[in-house]
Amino acid sequence: MDYVKTRKVKQFLSSIIFFFVVIGGWFYPYLGYFIPFCMLLGMGSGFFSGRKWCDWACPRGSFYDFFISPISPRKEIPKLLKNINFRLIVLALLMAFMLVNLAFRWFDPLKIGKFFVILLTSTTVLGIILALFIHPRSWCSICPIGTLIFLTADKKKRLKIDSSKCISCKLCDKNCPIQINPSKFKQQGEVVINDPDCLRCGVCISVCPKKAISK
Length: 215
What we know:
single chain; 215 residues; mainly alpha; Alpha-Beta Plaits; 2 domains
């Protein structure tokens, strides 16, 4: 099985977990605690491997890629959603909203679990709307956990570019799930894909006909 197929299998399995939590959580609210667990796991992994967590280990990201991507217009993600200042504002607002709600529910573990289920459902619906009108990974640009990882992921396991092999076909740009356009770094004379939002997913490596990109 080649890399792209393996990635799809992983995303499918991760998506099943997502369905189980987001649907089952309405009947069994304690499943909501899976959400802060994923948040902590994502942030922890970010210190070692950057946004690789967001590739397939994140159940929601996998859901968007596997199920929503085929029906998304896959337009360019608006620059506003990628702007770090805007992302920090979204992060601050969502964190403040979460902390206030947790404070009101602090002595009731069932209500806390239900709050996390509601939070996951509402932000997922927003992500689906963005995916159906723009791009499947639009939400990932403003995801609070993705933003926190972005701030610490700059030099974590960056992919390498061999300019002598690159033929500027830009297949890497067309297939990049997060639209960081790997070819631009080669044009800028970089020897690595120097973008903290890079998922290290390896799709660009898989589609490159000259194997000009490597880990």
